[in-house]
Amino acid sequence: MLFIAIILTTIGIFSLNRDGALTNKISNQVFGTAINFAALILFCNLYGLARGFFIFLAMFALLGMCVTFLRGYQKRA
Amino acid sequence: MKSITIKKLYTLHSWVGLITGILLFVIAFSGAVAVFTRPELKIWSNQEIRAEIPIQSHKIENTIEQYAQKVGPDYLEEVHIRLPSARLSETARVIYEGHFETPEGGEEHKGTVFEFHPLNWSLVSKNDMDTFFELEKYDMSTFLAHFHADLHLGRPVGLILTGLLGLTLMVSIVTGLFIHRKILAQLFTFRVSKTFSLMLNDGHKVMSVWAVLFHSVIAFTGAFLGLATVILVPAAAYVGFNGDQEKLLETFTAIKAPIVANVAQPTKLADIIDISIQKRPDLTFDNVAIMGYGDQNALVYISGDGSEQLGGETLVFHGATAEYIRTQANFGRLEGVTGKILDAMFPLHFGNFGGLLVKCIWAILGLSTALVPITGLMLWIERGLNAQNPTHSKRTYQNFNKLLIGSCGGIVLATVALFIAQLIFDKTLPEQDHTSLIFKTFFGVWLGAIILPFVIKQALALKIIILGSGLLMVLIMPLDGLFTGSHVFNVFETQHYVSVSVDLTMLFLGTLLLVSYNKMSQQRHELSTTSVPQTAIEREA
Is the peptide bond before B39 cis (omega within 30 degrees of 0)? Predict the structure, then answer.
């Protein structure tokens, strides 16, 4: 379940990106938010409400940074 | 917001970063390492606790009773036991404490601290409580944990300084958010192929914005933990308890003394430990507090971590009957959300509430907290050196760059050097206190690294610091295997899973550092041969 939660967070982050900026498309924003919310629920289910919330926030930050850095290096390559 | 206000906020952001940037890196980097000091690095730096330690409930009960007879009834008001099975310290520690009236009519706490071997419970040392806590012995893990807490500047100065740094980080976060209001438009932007200045700018923003909530949590909890004991508690005691801090703590902390019946009845400690393990297999029990040991009304508090509760849980038992009373959090007696928030402070700061995964995330994000001020400072230097009419002289920027390389690179080198030093001291000076040697190694290496860029070319100094750190990291595993006989090939036999994992992690990080440096050197070489302009910082180096 942890693996699925991490994958969902990553998909949620990817769907919020559009050419290096936060997407303007409402549908993508809604989709990204919904996917991240599903990931949040999974984390809370795994770790409990308070712990799951903070773990999701940290995971979201970490994956967001990773996606942005990797995207930068990928564009360079 | 008016552009003039933005400009003022930008100035404030820059000055706060300039003044506190290097210290923030030091604190945040040491914090990222401190995440693993308990128990991982504690286990790594003490061979006696490298393998799992079973809870020997009857052995504990017998030892506590045996030494209770020796210290006498005056010291049985509180008995505090650090269980060796949690592997949070190199010894099993037992404190027998009594409360005595002073001639002035006040109350004084006196006690005796016994340290036992974690496996066979043979006596290692005996000290009175004041001496024990004044002359605390440091291994590398304890040193690093305390360095993060107060920079070894002593208390209260060190705690106030780290607390204030938490507050300045909050100021930087708030001003940063206001001056980069359109940051969402560049949320996923990281341009490597353009200029160095642009890459630094993007890196600074990416690490700041994605982890803004993490940085905020760390800043707030850090400020609270730093200032709570030296400012907030005395202030609250002054307001609500006529300056009596002990009364305030007794009122709000969960471990409360019972009304002693003065009727002797054995405390069933072994039964209580066994019941706790059966009742809560999810918890790792680390501490036991017995209030009124050997009395009919004795209460036993056994604490553990690992449950869904952020700050751990404490099981309360009736000592004489081993009857379970309740489970509570540390500040469980505070009504509403206050207790929950106070309980969450420590775990949220150190990330020790969800196993190794959360610790790893906290460490990586902690490194990003460390890198944010550094990228900001590098950006300031780069812009200053590139500017037509810089605010300060060229020499100022150069010297600041040298200080940045020496102090920030030096703290990494000094931290890694502690691993090697611990192994060498354990091998060459066994059974001796290594505290002063640990201090000398750490601060000696750090000071050397700070001076280095001022006496040799800064590019060479940077190379020495990076390659030195990488090589030392790679050396840890073979040295550990050579000196202790514990290595990856006999890990199933020795069961030193934690220490071998630390060795492997350091080997991986060292290799990564060396490979990254090699790759960056190659890229710089290619750029210089194709006559692409270097960065201002590199030109000056």
Answer: yes
Is B118 found in the same domain as B162? Answer: no
Residue B342 has pLDDT above 90, yes or no: no
Q: How confident is the model at residue B456 (pLDDT cuts 50, 70, 90)?
A: very high
pLDDT at B354: 87
Interval B288-341: pLDDT, tens:
999 999 999 999 999 998 877 777 889 999 999 999 999 888 766 556 677 778
Contacts A72 to B, Cβ<8 Å: 189-192, 202
Q: Residue B308 gets which letter from DSSP? A: S
On whether both B88 and B105 belong to a single domain, the answer is: yes
* pLDDT given for residue B66 in this prediction: 95
Alpha-carbon gap: A48 to the closest alpha carbon of chain B (Å): 5
> Which one, of B372, B445, B348, lies nearest residue B25 by Cα?
B372
Whether B290 and B349 map to the same domain: the answer is no
Task: Give yes or no for a contact between B467 and B514, defined as CB atoms under 8 angstroms apart.
Answer: yes
Q: How far is A9 from chain B (nearest CA, A)?
A: 13
Q: Are residues B8 and B150 in the same domain?
A: yes
Residues B453 and B304 in one domain: no
- The C-alpha atoms of residue B473 and residue A38 are separated, in whole angstroms, by 40
Touching A: B residues 215-274, CB under 8 Å: 217
Q: Considering chain B, what is the average pLDDT of its residues?
A: 90
Chain A partners within 8 Å of B212 (Cβ): 61
